[in-house]
Amino acid sequence: MDSNSNAQARVARLIRVRGLVQGVGFRAACMRHARGLGIVGWVRNRSDGSVEALLLGAPELLDRMCAWLQGGVAGARVTGVEVEPAPLPDPAPSGFEMLPTR
Question: Would residue 18 show up in a list of annotated catalytic residues for this protein?
Answer without folding.
Answer: no
